[in-house]
Amino acid sequence: QVQLQESGPGLVRPSETLTLTCTVSGVSFSITYLSWVRQLPGKGLEWIGYMYYTGNPTYNPSLKSRVTLSIDTSESQFSLKLNSVTAADTAVYYCATTGLSSTGYSTDISFNHWGQGLLVAVSS
Amino acid sequence: QSVLTQPPSVSAAPGQKVAISCSGNSSNIGKHYVSWYQQLPGTAPKLHIYENYKRPSGIPGRFSGSKSGTSATLGVTGLQTGDEAEYYCVSWDSSLSAAVFGGGTKLTVL
């Protein structure tokens, strides 16, 4: 079955770079996009960005200036880097397999399988 | 403020049915597909509806989805206590070039 597991530090200092890794198993990178989604404490969900294994990531414009996504197919890993973090970046971070299709007019995006999530606090 | 608008909460008795709405505009729901997610307390969201009305394997037929104009609806029939959760809608937004979430609706089965 499809499994995703987030890993990384649970605490990051303000102004530093948050780096998370998602290890993916049970699915080929060639048939799915991968996304990062975060959930601010007690609040809703926010899409960070998605990527296909061939490259060319797409980012949420609200975070684009600070985010970098990458994929290492040899390690089956999907990574997130978020720089210049502040307390507002404290959240549970999820990685998810992503279905993405377009008819040319309409786009469908769905987050099919999710990791368990990783709580990252930004604090000095 | 979320781009997609959901009611904060809905409730109904066991065995009854409930509808959760998700309102957007012509840049998101009015043009693109909608998916729905169930988030049980302390767990990751789980896909329940995609492409407006399709159910992934393993999701009971008690869950249904529909879309009309710039709004979408998640329906749940035969409510069970295990359905108590937060539910979120998602769509692509052409103006923002981003996937956008609703603020979530807490379903309580009384």
How would you concisely characterize the structure shown here?
The complex is a heterodimer of chains A (124) and B (110). Chain A has 124 residues and is mainly beta.
Describe the model:
The complex is a heterodimer of chains A (124) and B (110). In chain A, 0% of the residues lie in helices and 58% in strands. Chain A is mainly β and 124 residues long. In chain A, the strands form two sheets. In chain A, strands 2, 4, 5, 6, 9, 10 and 11 form a seven-stranded mixed sheet that branches. A four-stranded antiparallel sheet of chain A has the order 1-3-8-7, with no helix packed on it. Chain A is globular. The termini of chain A are far apart. Chain B is mainly β and 110 residues long. Helix content of chain B is 0%, strand content 45%. Chain B has no helices and nine strands. Chain B has strands spanning 9-12, 18-23, 34-39, 46-49, 63-68, 71-76, 85-93, 98-101, 105-109. Chain B is globular, with a radius of gyration of 13 Å. The model of chain B has no long low-confidence stretch (mean pLDDT 96).
The strand count of chain B comes to: 9
Could you spell the SSE succession of chain A in H and E letters? EEEEEEEEEEE
In angstroms, what is the radius of gyration of chain B? 13 Å
Give the number of DSSP strands of chain A: 11
Structural class by helix and strand composition of chain B: mainly beta
Low-pLDDT residue intervals, each spanning 5 or more residues of chain A: none
List the topology elements.
The complex is a heterodimer of chains A (124) and B (110).
Chain A: E1 3-7, E2 11-12, E3 18-25, E4 33-39, E5 45-52, E6 55-59, E7 67-72, E8 77-82, E9 91-102, E10 107-114, E11 118-122
Parallel strand pairs in A: 2-11
Antiparallel strand pairs in A: 1-3, 3-8, 4-5, 4-9, 5-6, 7-8, 9-10, 9-11
Chain B: E1 9-12, E2 18-23, E3 34-39, E4 46-49, E5 63-68, E6 71-76, E7 85-93, E8 98-101, E9 105-109
Parallel strand pairs in B: 1-9
Antiparallel strand pairs in B: 2-6, 3-4, 3-7, 5-6, 7-8, 7-9
